[in-house]
Amino acid sequence: MSILSDFIKESGLTSEAIVTASSSVERHSIDDRGRLVARENARRAKKSYADAGVPAEKPKALGRGISSGTLHRALGGAPTTRVVRKKILRAVNDRLANAKKDTVTSKQLFSDVPAKKGKSKAKK
């Protein structure tokens, strides 16, 4: 399997709990939605974000949690993208924080699996 699956088994977490935690952690707050709408309105008006008065920081949440299929592929040791790794790590650390355990790093969970790379752009 993978280090991730071994860690989840020994820490007592379930895949359903991780998927649920991911959806709650990655959900946009009302403030995040307001920032996204302000950025969208600035782009439509073809103004810079500073001219439109848009806050500089981006939302911390990514908007969508991981699916159970994506988690099962990661548990099986399949290569995953950086975004998926980030979402899994945030969900696992959320559950560990709720259980008052120490958090982990990405290298501790994914050091045995190579990162999945996207398609390269065609050269002109």
Describe the fold and architecture:
The protein has 124 residues and is mainly α. The chain has one domain. The protein is 56% helix and 0% strand. The chain has 7 helices and no strands.
Total beta-strand segments? 0
Unreliable stretches: none
N-to-C span: 41 Å
What composes the largest sheet?
A: none
Shape category: globular
Elements, N to C (H/E): HHHHHHH
Chain-averaged pLDDT: 88
Tell me the quaternary state: single chain
Provide the structure class.
Answer: mainly alpha
Percent of residues in helical segments? Answer: 55-70%
What would you report as the Rg, rounded to the nearest angstrom? 18 Å
Count of runs of 4 or more consecutive helical residues: 7
